[in-house]
Each structure stands twice: as C-alpha cells, then as structure tokens.
Amino acid sequence: MVDNRYATALVIACVLSVLATVYLSVAIGTQHWYQYSSPTVRGEANVSELRSLYEEFMSGEFDEKTYSDTLFRLNGTVGLWWRCVLVPPNAHWIKEPDAKMVLECRNFTLLEQFTPKYKEPGNHNSGEDMLRTYLWRCQFLLPLTSLGLVVLAGLIGFCACLCRTLTPTLGLGVLHLLAGLCTLATVCCYLAGMDLLHRVSMLPDKVDGSLGWSLYLALISSPLHMMAAALLVWAARSHSQNYYRMTAYRVA
Predict the structure, then answer these.
(1) At the top level of CATH, which class does the domain 4-242 belong to?
(2) Which residue, 1, 25, 128, 149, shows the most beta carbons closer than 10 Å to its own?
(3) Which residues, 6 or more positions from 53, have their beta carbon under 8 angstroms from its beta carbon?
(4) 212 within 8 A of 35, measured Cβ to Cβ
(5) Where are the strands (E) in 110-232, listed by range?
(6) How many angstroms separate the CA atoms of 196 and 249, rounded?
(7) CA–CA gap between residue 122 and residue 120 (Å, rounded)
(8) What is each CA distance from 171 to 23, 35, 54, 150, in whole angstroms?
(9) Are 55 and 103 in contact (CB under 8 A)?
(10) In the predicted model, is pLDDT for residue 35 greater than 60?
(11) pLDDT digit string, tens, across residues 218-241
C-alpha cells in the first residue's frame, strides 16, 4: 500500500512531466526560437533584391549565408527545424506596402542538420567552424534525446503501475533529471550558436533580433522536468527508508 504523501508526489510529478513534454514538443515543432525585425521595404532596387533573396530562399540550394541574409531582411524567424520569412501575399511589394504579410517557411532536412558550418558563412574555402557545427548538431539531437528519455520513463512507469511497485521510481527521477538537463543544454547551445552566427554575419542596419516564444517554452520545460525528478527521487528515497524501518520493526 502506498502512503498518501507518496501518491500525491507521484501524481504531481506525472502532471509536471506531461506539461514539460508538451511544452518541449511544441517548441521543437515551431519556428519562433529567434526572430528578426526588419525595416519596411522601400524603393524598386531594394524590392528587386529582396524578391531575389526570397526566391532563392524558397527554391534555391541550402546555403547558410543565403538563408541568413533572407531572414535578416524579411522579418525572419528560425527554429530547430524551420526557417520562415514574412512576405506580401503577391509580387506587388511597392504598390501595396501595407498589405497583410504571410509567413512562408522551409524546413531543415535531416541532411541539412548535419551540414558543416564555415568560418565565413557561404565560403566553403574558409574552413569548417567546428564549434558552430557541433553546437548546431547538439541543438538538434539533445531535444530528441530529452523526449526519448521521457518516453522511456513513461514506459517504465506504466509497467511499474501494472506491477504495483515503487521500485523503479528512483530511476524515473534520474531519467527526468537527464531530460531536463538535455533541454537546458539545447537552449544554451542554440543561444551560443546564434551569438556566434551574429559575430560572423553582422546584422544589417535597423535590423533587430529577439528571442521567440518557442525558446521560452523549451526553457520552461527544463525546470518542470527537474521538479518532477525531485519529487520522484524524494518519493523513492522516503518510501525506501519507511520500508526498511517497517521491516526492522517487524523483525524486532
């Protein structure tokens, strides 16, 4: 029989785990990790240049400099799997400067996720930037690892419920702690990668960058996983100590 305190801790841990997993899943699947604010388009030459950037962004080959410049100039947003720009719904950018903008997105393919980053974006002769390359790969792999750990914890917890035992609870806490650390590391890798990108690719004048809500969702999910881990570890240790006391009392 499980003490009410342990049962309450387990229920709260489950709720926190579900919330954290939902937040992280939404963050991974959306593109609002980092967003740029660009000035309004003015002038025929400027419009032609931006239209060319947009067409290459949507249909051209994958190139970090090309898509970065497009994101800078067209109010872009970039996430772990998506890169998007805000453009008018038609080609008449000058005639309708105040037209409602639409979001056009392209996903990062699995091959593009593992494409090396270069010291000078777009210049393959400048040499590979190992730090940016591995930061990008980590920000792609770590959140998937975090979700995998939580799914594994869920399966173990389900089996434990069927067997009516609290034995694996400590292991579940450790898995949630690792998941929270992976999520936190994802956010750190992403922020470090964006900072290094802005050092090698200077933002144009009057273009500002800011963190998006997807990144904050991922950031919130990390302490939620850690709180769930703390509750699970407490329940496991307290139940274990109580069990040993009861056993010693019965023996005595």
Answers:
(1) mainly alpha
(2) 149
(3) 66, 69, 70, 73, 74
(4) yes
(5) 208-211
(6) 62
(7) 6
(8) 23, 38, 49, 12
(9) no
(10) yes
(11) 999 999 999 999 998 888 877 555
Token duo for residue 192: 């470090």
Give residue for tokens 């890169």: 83
Residues 118 and 130: beta-carbon distance below 8 Å: no
Number of helices (H) and strands (E), helices first, in the chain?
Answer: 7, 5
Give the orientation angle of helix 130-163 with respect to helix 169-200, to 10 degrees. Answer: 160
Q: Distance (Å, rounded) from C-alpha 38 to C-alpha 77?
A: 11
Tokens of 205: 């004048």
| Residues 169-195 pLDDT 10s | 888 999 999 999 999 999 999 999 999
H, E, C per residue of 37-81: ECCCCCCHHHHHHHHHHHHHHHHCCCCHHHHHHHHHHCCCEECCC
Distance of CA 140 to the CA centre of its chain: 8
Q: Are 38 and 72 in contact (CB under 8 A)?
A: yes
Domain spans in the chain, listed from the N-terminal domain onward: 4-242
Residue 212 CA to its chain's centroid (Å) = 11
Distances (CA, A) of 238 to 5, 11, 15, 72: 10, 16, 20, 54
Hey, CA dihedral for 90, 91, 92, 98, is it positive or negative?
A: positive
Give pLDDT, residue 58. 79
Supply the pTM of this predicted model: 0.85
By the 8 A CB rule, do 128 and 165 touch? no
Q: Which helix (H) or strand (E) holds 208?
A: strand 208-211
Cβ(79)–Cβ(26) below 8 Å? no
